[in-house]
Amino acid sequence: MITVDEALELVREQTHVLPAERAPIVDAVGLVLGEDVTSQTNCPPFDKAQMDGYAVASNGKESVRSVIGTAAAGDVPRQVVTADTAVRIMTGAPIPQGADAVVAFEQVEQIDEQQIRLDTSVICPGSHVLPLGACLRKGQVALSIGTPLGAAQIGLVAESGHQHVAAIPRPGIAILATGNELVPLGTPIESSQIRNTNGPMLAAAATVAGAVSDDRGIAPDQRDDLCEMIASTLSYDVVALCGGVSRGDFDLVPEVLAELGVTQVFHRVALRPGKPLWFGIYERPASGKTLVFGLPGNPVSSYVCFELFVRPALAQLAGRSFQGLPRGVGRLATDYEPSGRREAFLPARIDRQGHVDLLPWRGSADLTALGQADVLANLPGGGRSVPAGTEIQCLRMPVA
Ligand code: AMP
Ligand code: MG
Known about the structure:
binds magnesium ion, binds adenosine monophosphate, 18% helix, six-stranded mixed beta sheet
């Protein structure tokens, strides 16, 4: 059986980056830029006042200047400032011809309506003036391809004059639960039935991971129906099936996937919980490739496999690095006695001091422990016990 790291490498190797698409800039927040953004304008587009005050010529020797007009933001000042004149100017207004500095109101003595007195020794050329193109030149690259677009970057794209931007879209992921025993939300459970918890859980995990999820419901453990329902998901960037990948008589997913032309990359990983994980790829007839994950049916296994393997693939498809949950370190609060040789990711809570408490759980069907956890404690494979106090890696389970 391959290790978690080997399996991750195989997923990484098969994961591409989606082609960029043009989008209105406000819809592109959270996406990664698919091309360089070049500014269509100089920023600022004119020499701009940075202060409310008087626009003056800094080389004027006269300390008394006559006020020849007012310039507000949005005005085009027509006055020409000379050595002994000044224009009252507001922040954001273009600097009038002849002026090269702004003196703040606070630094000016108002003699009367028409005259001001300045301390000429403190006026420097360019003071409180933001020259044309000082922040960004027309034709300059404002943001490079690969930059994640947060609010500040959207602002810069807007300032560069663009209404649309080429960005890598959020990957689309289809989620399909399999199992005759499953019932959807809103339907009472009869004896022998199990609630489909994985559908909503995986859809939520996909949303938190930045993908667009489509919960395709429940497929029965019946070859033809399963085949038809899986086939209808293969146009998505990613498919997350759950259940039907173990060794049971009705675990039909791997053979149905083979029938549909999905090529297996690996099946089974030395991981607890999550050993039955299946992964393969589907080359779509028109173009593009679908990553297909057959997640184990037990909810904790399904969740762990999603966060370990599907999440980094979604990140890479979206133009980010192939990265899973954020990792931190903590110290085990109690001894860990492994129940086998597989590397484990177990529901745990970490406190402010970094003590990691493994939560009591009844195995991979126990969603209660997972729901109360805030980290997955990563415990090494190999079957060795780990004493309390040992430093271990923890994967933070994100809530948003
Ligand atoms: P399987 O992997 O199909 O053998 O399923 C393993 C266990 O997980 C069984 O007890 C299933 O009933 C349960 N299970 C499978 N799919 C789901 C699901 N979508 N939601 C909750 N439990 C599930
Ligand atoms: Mg099943």
